[in-house]
């Protein structure tokens, strides 16, 4: 009996580890997760964090903060258990500062991975930034950049002018350049301007235009570089910001040398969603890859189709991450609902792709 248990334990461990090396190939997971207002409990005069203080509107105590960290780490660990490996690179948004990421990566559920952090303090009026977590044994960071938003477009007619433009503050775009298992990559992480009031398509289009322009310069400077763009775009893959200004294409056959493949385009059309608003599912948590990564020759990393349906992306959804009762049953189990702390995870579901070589 004891021998049987030992053999069974061996196969269970093997089932967790083996997918990373199946058929002699390597599989690296790259994803994005909007963490829904991950604030610490300290007052930062440079941040608009008043609501997330113990005496603030949300009564944001250390107990609630630690619960939030545990929840996010639990989701990351769950994805690792599903994939047989932790993310090699994970972009995040709605974080207050570097400290919250340091607290996150030290959570016992994920501390073993030794995630390293790329983060810059940005100018956003809400005090939230984007960031990047990466496994140092997979990705060697060479340099990074925080790319500011500007109105320098020759194609977009903006609704804002004058003083409104001067006062407009939004998240910077993060770019991390380095070597993923020896191959040159650039990862972009974005959180484009809000859709509040049904507005801002011009601002999101400009954000996409900035990313695309910077990526084109990186491809000129580093021929053959592979590029992944990820973020909460506050638009669907089918919206103009993603199709026209990010040059996102639905089908691999449509992708030219200067285009990006948009894996979640077809998934949105098939009914998948990463967040729900007024009963409608959307995929704002988008990942795109350049043609070099889509059509890489054998021996190099390329995005790979997943599952029986052959989609190139995943919206990660487990029952514990979903509201099981009440008005918002069936939607992501969030941290707050109608201003009350309900102890959930995030109002967004994480998305990811898998790179194979």
Q: What is the assigned CATH homologous superfamily?
A: Endonuclease/exonuclease/phosphatase
Largest β-sheet summary: 7 strands, mixed
Low-pLDDT segments: 1-21
Strand content: 25-35%
* Shape estimate: globular
Number of domains: 1
Overall mean pLDDT score? 93
- CATH topology term: Deoxyribonuclease I, Chain A
CATH architecture verdict: 4-Layer Sandwich
The total count of strands amounts to: 18
**Rg result:** 20 Å
Please give the share of residues in helix: 10-25%
Q: What brief labels describe this structure?
A:
seven-stranded mixed beta sheet; alpha+beta; disordered N terminus; 357 residues; globular; Deoxyribonuclease I, Chain A; 8 helices; single chain
Describe the structure.
By secondary structure, the protein is α+β, with helices and mostly antiparallel strands. It has helices at 2-17, 62-83, 98-105, 162-167, 201-221, 240-245, 264-269, 291-294, and strands spanning 27-38, 89-95, 116-119, 129-134, 139-147, 173-180, 183-191, 226-232, 248-249, 260-261, 275-277, 280-282, 285-290, 302-303, 314-315, 336-337, 340-341, 351-356. Helix content is 25%, strand content 26%. Strands 1, 2, 3, 4, 14, 15 and 18 form a 7-stranded mixed sheet that branches.
Summarize this structure briefly.
The chain is of the alpha+beta class. The chain is built from 8 helices and 18 strands. The N terminus is likely disordered.
């Amino acid at each position: 009996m004891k021998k049987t248990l030992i053999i069974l334990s061996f196969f269970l461990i093997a089932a967790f580890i083996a997918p990373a090396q199946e058929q002699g190939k390597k599989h690296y997971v790259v994803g994005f997760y909007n963490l829904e207002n991950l604030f610490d409990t300290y007052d930062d005069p440079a941040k608009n964090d008043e609501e997330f203080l113990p005496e603030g509107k949300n009564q944001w105590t250390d107990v609630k903060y630690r619960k939030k960290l545990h929840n996010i780490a639990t989701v990351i660990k769950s994805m690792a258990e599903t994939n047989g490996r932790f993310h090699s690179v994970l972009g995040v948004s709605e974080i207050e500062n570097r400290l919250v990421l340091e607290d996150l990566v030290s959570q016992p559920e994920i501390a073993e991975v030794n995630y390293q952090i790329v983060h810059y303090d940005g100018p956003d009026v809400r005090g939230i930034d984007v960031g990047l977590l990466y496994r140092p044994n997979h990705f060697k960071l060479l340099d990074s950049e925080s790319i500011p938003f500007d109105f320098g477009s020759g194609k977009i007619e903006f609704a804002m002018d004058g003083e409104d433009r001067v006062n407009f503050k939004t998240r910077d775009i993060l770019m991390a350049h380095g070597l993923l298992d020896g191959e040159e990559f650039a990862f972009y992480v974005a959180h484009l301007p809000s859709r509040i009031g049904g507005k801002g398509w011009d601002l999101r289009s400009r954000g996409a235009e900035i990313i695309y322009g910077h990526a084109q310069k990186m491809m000129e400077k580093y021929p053959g570089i592979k590029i992944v763009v990820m973020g909460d775009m506050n638009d669907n893959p089918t919206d103009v910001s993603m199709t026209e200004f990010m040059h996102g294409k639905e089908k691999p056959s449509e992708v030219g040398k200067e285009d990006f493949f948009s894996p979640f385009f077809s998934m949105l059309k098939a009914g998948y969603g990463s967040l729900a608003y007024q009963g409608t599912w959307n995929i704002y948590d988008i990942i795109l890859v350049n043609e070099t990564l889509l059509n890489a020759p054998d021996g190099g990393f390329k995005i790979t189709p997943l599952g029986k349906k052959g989609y190139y992306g995943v919206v990660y959804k487990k029952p514990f991450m979903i509201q099981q009762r009440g008005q918002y049953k069936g939607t992501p189990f969030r941290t707050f609902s109608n201003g009350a702390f309900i102890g959930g995870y995030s109002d967004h579901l994480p998305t990811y792709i898998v790179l194979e070589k």
